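just leaving the lab so this will be short. below you get a single protein, a line of residues and a line of whole numbers that encode the local backbone shape. id like you to explain what the token line says about the fold, in plain words if possible. thanks a lot i owe you, the record is right below:

…
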Amino acid sequence: MDSLVYADGTWHEGDPPLIGALSQSYMHGTAVFDGARLFNDCVPDLGRHCERLLRSAAVMGLDQPVDAATVESLAREGARRFETGAELYIRPSLYAARGFLTPEPGSTRFLLSLMRMAMPAAHGRSITVSPFRRPGPDMAPTEAKASCLYPNGSRALQDAERRGFDNALMLDGDGNVAELASANIWLGRNGVAITPVWNRTFLNGITKLRVSALLGELGIDVVEQTVSLDDVMGADEVFSTGNWGKVLPITRVDDHEFAVGPLYRAAREAYWAYAETEPL
């Protein structure tokens, strides 16, 4: 079994056709989702991902036909249908079945999908500065994890991959560093862990917040600040945090090379130790 989907009280193997052609969210991009991980038989911060799903729904004008505890319980039930040691991407979502330019809140449906997705190897990643930027909160619903926000990140990734890089470094409208196309970015300089201050142009990632707390518990100074491209190029080390790979090193930014550094190693080790405290 490669994937499992829960809809309307029933589990389905594979990828069943569930969203109608006239769905308001399909036509106008109001669907919201979240992503969690199963690896090493652990589901770190699963509850927080489920809670964020409902906050995203409120931003997009959708109802909440399930509560966070129910979403989490179903996610655990679905994950247990796979074998021990499976590595999964867990994606609960909400969408409006009816409406035209605006969603009918009462038509909101809940779906939950679990798919096999191996954890990426912890080798150095390469990134390039993208020509595409993150929108401001007055331009897009940036405080939701909404499907409508992802096409621009996909364009950035496609552009980066065409140019031989693994990911894209995206700026905000003011030209400051926001995040990668699919993860938050961190710098290390003089033993201090630095990450862009949340200015509502990107998601304040759950893994980012967890790593920030874990580094603080280790006595490492963590600073959120406005980050420029010069800050990135002048850093001692660079790494990322996000749901797909959790904590990964970055060893190349355009033509600048970086060594895998001690802050990355501390962050990854601390996160993996934390994950073991949240078993399936």
Remarks:
- The chain has a mean pLDDT of 97.
- The chain has two domains: 3-116, 125-275.
- Helices lie at 24-28, 46-59, 68-79, 150-162, 206-217, 229-233, 262-275.
- Residues 62 and 105 are 5 Å apart (CA to CA).
